[in-house]
Amino acid sequence: MRVLIVEDEPKICTYIKRGLEEQGYAVDTAANGREALELALRTPFDLMVLDIMLPELDGITVCEKLRQKEVCTPILMLTARDTVEDRVSGLDAGADDYLIKPFALSELLARLRALGRRDHTATKSPVLAVADLTLDTRSHRISRSGKTLELTAKEFAVIECLMREAGYALSRQTIADHVWDCSVFNESNIVDVYIRNLRRKIDAGHELKLIHTVRGIGYRLSAEDSVKTT
Ligand code: CA
What we know:
The chain is built from 8 helices and 12 strands. By secondary structure, it is an alpha/beta fold. The protein folds into 2 domains: 120 residues, 3-Layer(aba) Sandwich (Rossmann fold); 95 residues, Winged helix-like DNA-binding domain superfamily/Winged helix DNA-binding domain (Arc Repressor Mutant, subunit A). Helix 2 runs parallel beside helix 3 and helix 6 crosses helix 8. The radius of gyration is 18 Å and the shape is elongated. The structure holds calcium ion (CA). The site of calcium ion has 5 residues, from loops. The site of calcium ion (CA) has 5 residues, from loops.
């Protein structure tokens, strides 16, 4: 999952960024509203954390402009004051949820997990499953046939991305866009390296292979051999 944090207070921004990166999120940051808008319009973020009080363009305006352009990335607003007006104007502008400063990192993470589920899965279950492969987005635990797998944070992020779109072919670029932040270049090569490791950890030793190469496109996670087309 790739997140954009928009926050002009460097300490808070760094605090959130570190917390999210520890959980395996790819994190980009913006320190003012104009920069945030430009980034969010050209990058497919999975989630946004958006402060209301920002230089150049405030968070409410950024949110309104994104919704006008039909960017429907779930947005968690940060507000410094617990006033009804702030919360109402944030939600009216198209934000999905809000959090009042100061907040506990654990609450921010829980709210982002809930927003991620709302957007990406028909069922709101925090547990994703494909055949005997099971991934719990709360505990960050993944297992196959009941056996816990030891994955790095980025390996976890790649397989989570494939599991959320199970059955569908995802391009290397799509996978990279959701797993790495903008500081990483030559992503397609990186994706291949991670898939190789994931095959070793997830499919090796199992007769049923779940990770499939889709020629000319990228990869697909499925218990079946054929590609879903809708
Ligand atoms: Ca601020």
